[in-house]
Amino acid sequence: MNNPNNSYTKFSHLGMAIDPIHVGTGGNRLGRVDSTIVRDPATQIPKIPGSSLAGTYRSYSAMAEGKYPQCAGVGLPQSDGTGGHCGKPDCPICTVYGFARGQEGGFAGLAAFSDAHVLLFPVPTRKGVYWITSPNTMRFFSIEIELSQSAGLYLLDPTNSNSPLNLGWLMLPIMGLKKEVVNKIQEKLQDLKVPDYVIEKVGVVSDDLFAHVVNSNLEVRTSVSINPETGAAEDGALFTYEALPRTTFLYWEIVCKNPNHYRINSKPVSFKQNPQMEDVHYITQKAHPFFEHLGIGGMGTRGMGRIKVLV
Fold it and tell me: Considering the entire predicted model, what is its pTM?
């Protein structure tokens, strides 16, 4: 139990993509695909924005609490003042995720969501799939990794891979890490409930190479609109889109604020008797089964979006 006098508590989450995941940029650009996914502007590594997580979490939590659709979505009232978020201090959705009530003001919410970043990325090799990470990624967990050279693949278990190994089109020599660093990485991945069969095939590449490896091995699909009268493809309706591949592992945090430090219309937050930060997190956790079945992002009707939350 966390100290009730604290202002906030961070909760870590790890999810594994059951399907490819497409969180689009909202438009097209010139390039190899028509519809691209969101990337970090500094590293150019794909991510799921915290805003996408927050909106999806809210919708699914509202479903779990029987508050859908009235307390999900944008929630602004209609011109006659009806509808929209209820904005009540005892509503678990409006208090945890916030609400807007037009001129009546609103509430920012007790849960804040970070972006979901790639922790382990699956790449095909001649010896099957390997899951790749980087030193900058491991710094999320205060693990420092020093690589002797940038052009190498550092396996946690290099004993059975003496010859160079390909990561997609890229061939890299096999290198080893210090034993204490390997132990720290393995212990952290085990804490995050990463399966053993994945941990056995984890490799580290330099931060520079990681972005190239990820972007070169994204899943790219092609779709076309079908003319309902002819059953054939519509002329000029062919388009391509990219996605994070299946079994990508994503890491994000939810920061839960102390409900006892906030008031709604001068009334205490009361979605539960004497609510604590763990209770705020519990409301968000109710969304996790929906992520596994309904997914996140676009192209959900095309076999994309489902993610299993492991932690």
Answer: 0.91
